[in-house]
Amino acid sequence: MLGPLKDLFRGSRGSQGIGPALPNGGSRARSSPFQGAGTVDTRTSRGLEEFFVQIRDQSGLTILDLGGATQKNVSFITELGHRLYSEDFLAILHETFGDAENEQSNPGRIEYFLKQTLDYPEGQFDGVLVWDVLEYLTPALLNVVIERLHKVVKPKAYMLAFFHSDDKLQGVPNYTFRIAEINSLEVSQQGLRKPAQLFNNRSLEKLFVRFDSVKFFLTRERLREVIIRA
Asked: Residue 162 is part of which domain span?
């Protein structure tokens, strides 16, 4: 099934000089259709602080950033003595499925998407910066992505994910997140996107039921910051 899909999406891959080489031979760089100029707001993030509290006394960890490679995030993580892998999750999502949510249940496309985004060995990562990408996945795709994340993180690894707290929204801000300090982010809004689904605390606990624990923080932007421990 992957052969025809690789032909369909031929030319979507690129390489960049930021960060370590990926297992398939190069970092993945894409120009996301959802990124562009936006007002930058620096704000405190308790979720980010909690994430770094868990790894601050360690070095040589391997972190995955699903927001795409940004110089600030690469520099911040590597200066702490860790290794960073980056995937532009939303750009690959758009390339694979377009705007057709029903395609997110297509087994062949799901397989291709996982190959492009989360094709890593079991127990590869000590932490994952998921940001807000999961609320753009329909249930069929979301379930396999969560399953794959559970596989590629080590036991006791931590993930940081953001979800909009208003579960009645028809469109949600699409953000770019850059790490400013241990406890603060530069947040840039890149327009609005329609979420595939929105979550409350209970549904998030159910979503991450295979993980050891889930901890919530609510921000002034009505983002629910979630720390997930494997």
From this structure: 2-14+38-229
